[in-house]
Design goal:
Blueprint lengths: L4 H12 L5 E12 L2 E12 L3 E5 L6 H8 L7 E6 L2 E2 L5 H7 L1 E4 L11 H14 L14 H13 L15 H14 L4 E5 L7 H14 L4 E5 L3 H7 L2 E6 L2 E6 L1 H6 L1 H8 L6
Parallel strand pairs: 3-8, 3-9, 6-7, 7-8
Antiparallel strand pairs: 1-2, 1-4, 4-5, 9-10
Bound molecules: adenosine-5'-triphosphate.
Organism: Natrinema soli
GO molecular function: ATP binding
Family: Belongs to the ABC transporter superfamily.
Amino acid sequence: MSKNADELENTAVAQETPSSDVILRTEGLTKKFGPLTATDNISLDILADGITSIIGPNGAGKTTLFNLFTGKYEPTDGQILFRGQSIGGNEPYEIVRQGIVRSYQITNFFSELTTIENVRLASQARYTGFRPSDFLRHHESLEEPIADARRVLERVHLADASHEPASSLSYGQRRHLEIAIALAAEPDLLLMDEPTAGMSPEETRETVELIEDIATDTSVVIIEHDMEIVMGISDQIAVLNEGSVLAQGEPAEIKRDERVQRAYLQGGGHD
Ligand SMILES: Nc1ncnc2c1ncn2[C@@H]1O[C@H](COP(=O)(O)OP(=O)(O)OP(=O)(O)O)[C@@H](O)[C@H]1O
């Protein structure tokens, strides 16, 4: 039976609109730096549920993709849809307000302030705004930001260190403080760049558990080089190679994908 015009139109809409289980979609996303193409026509779906890992050899375009998601870079071409809305080229503070937050691998807090003061400042921004100049504005009450900061510190197991100067925290605790600062913005999508890099086996185990806990109510995307962690933690994996998506799927599919093995698991260099 042939479809009438309405049915055809509905089909077209259904194909174009990301389904509700996709939180972020890229369509033909390209970023060029002069003659170099860092991400090349990437079309990728990040599912709302669970943890997506982005893997690939050095220079594959993983960090560039994160920088496009957070508004640090403007796409040269293509679209980024967050919950169906185009965000490509938005300012970083707008993207944080829209619900995408990145937790940094590098230390990015005020070391002379206490642990809770650092998280409280980040929670305050939810009330005053995420524009750099908004940090100078005052929320009339500190009660809510302090209560939020306490809750977040419980979650990342730093409650006991609340009143320690951030400079006195161990390396693993500092990384958890970074995560706490990101969580204080109450993201819907949390981006994490090598969340266990440089950690001891014990710190790594705690951090993996923490990420799994966060993923129960927040969509999580991680860039990760450690294949044991990737295979254990991920619900979905996207493999990039030379700026393009080589494969996307569940860990078992990715493990047996011959192109992936050739490009990355056996052949390609990584940290
Ligand atoms: N700001 C920039 N200016 C010029 N070239 C850049 C810039 N950022 C990234 N590149 C280039 O884009 C390509 C992709 O880099 P990107 O950092 O995204 O890769 P990656 O997959 O994150 O690598 P790694 O695992 O080493 O961090 C590389 O060739 C890199 O040199």
